[in-house]
Write a sequence for this structure.
């Protein structure tokens, strides 16, 4: 709550500084760390006893940093203790194993150019956070339960609805952040979404024709739009409590799209990747880019070779995955047995037809011989 209030209060401080300097807010040269260290000390310094307010500000920032360090460390240790490889490791050993490397790496920020490194890393880590947030939202709202959607409504409507939600937005971003044509971008976005939904509707109606007793227009559209994430919501509600339905809508149709928009905006910003803050390419920009590339590398490794992260899997996840694998194997074997049985039936029918033909031919020949 403190961070949320402070975030909104910074904009109030910017407005106050702009009024004091009689300039527009857009003309204030504040970004990154300057938003805190360039605004709050000036604004608080105008209050009675301003120097004491400034001291209290820096004490609060220090406590906020300590609090964040506790939160990050506890989150990492909790995840590690839930994995197979570290589940029996004492907590204090994991604590030392996390703190010592982090402390050693942070010594870089204590050098004369440490603030520059911190500023660059802080900027490029935003790409990683947006990417991770998008992958988490996309995984929960779109990827989770997709095989069941394929089975229920088919591949075509599932893919077309996904494309309707993301492709027009990416094209619109090209107009918004490249050509700065806001209205054209909105027209492309809305028009592309409507066109994609119409194509999806055609595919869904084809599915309804194939299964007329199973679906209505409303039920098949709900299955296409929110079926998979609604089932995910039903699965996690007994664990964490009631989840309002608005969560389903936001996770499916709002949060991933907003994260894509923010990611493209960050890439297209004038001081974006490779030129941030006017810092030299080597070593500042290069170090920041490598931090982002390393995160992409970890993601691609997990995508292409997921077995490499198997030691870090949760025990219950391994049980679920083994159960799913067994179920898939059973379905495959069942399908093969059905296929073999169909083949046997076809051979029997073919043999019976051939036998019938032989009987008929024999009767004809017998009749002809009797006639003669």
């Amino acid at each position: 709550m403190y961070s949320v209030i402070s975030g909104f209060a910074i904009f109030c401080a910017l407005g106050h500084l702009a009024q004091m300097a009689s300039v527009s807010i857009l003309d204030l040269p504040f970004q990154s760390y300057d938003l805190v260290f360039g605004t709050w000390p000036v604004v608080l310094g105008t209050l009675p006893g301003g120097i004491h307010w400034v001291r209290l500000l820096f004490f609060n920032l220090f406590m906020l940093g300590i609090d964040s360090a506790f939160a990050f460390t506890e989150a990492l240790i909790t995840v590690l203790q839930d994995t197979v490889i570290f589940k029996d490791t004492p907590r204090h050993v994991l604590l030392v194993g996390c703190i010592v490397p982090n402390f050693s790496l942070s010594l870089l920020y204590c050098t004369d150019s440490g603030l520059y490194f911190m500023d660059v890393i802080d900027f490029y880590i935003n790409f990683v956070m947006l990417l991770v947030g998008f992958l988490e939202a996309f995984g929960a709202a779109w990827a989770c339960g997709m095989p069941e959607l394929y089975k229920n409504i088919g591949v075509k409507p599932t893919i077309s609805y996904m494309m309707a939600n993301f492709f027009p937005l990416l094209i619109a971003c090209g107009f918004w952040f490249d050509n700065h044509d806001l209205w054209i971008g909105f027209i492309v976005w809305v028009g592309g979404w409507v066109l994609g939904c119409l194509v999806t509707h055609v595919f869904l109606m084809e599915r309804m024709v194939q299964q007329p007793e199973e679906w209505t227009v409303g039920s098949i559209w709900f299955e296409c739009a929110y079926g998979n994430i609604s089932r995910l919501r039903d699965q996690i509600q007994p664990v964490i409590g009631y989840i309002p339905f608005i969560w389903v809508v936001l996770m499916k149709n709002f949060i991933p799209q907003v994260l894509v928009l923010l990611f493209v905006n960050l890439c297209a910003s004038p001081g974006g990747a490779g030129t941030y803050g006017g810092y030299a390419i080597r070593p500042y920009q290069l170090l920041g880019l490598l931090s982002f590339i390393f995160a992409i590398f970890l993601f691609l490794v997990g995508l292409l070779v997921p077995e490499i992260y198997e030691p870090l899997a949760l025990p219950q996840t391994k049980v679920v995955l083994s159960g799913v694998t067994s179920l898939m194997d059973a379905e495959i074997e069942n399908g093969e047995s059905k296929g073999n049985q169909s083949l046997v039936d076809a051979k029997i029918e073919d043999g019976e037809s051939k036998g019938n033909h032989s009987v008929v031919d024999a009767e004809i020949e017998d009749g002809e011989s009797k006639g003669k």
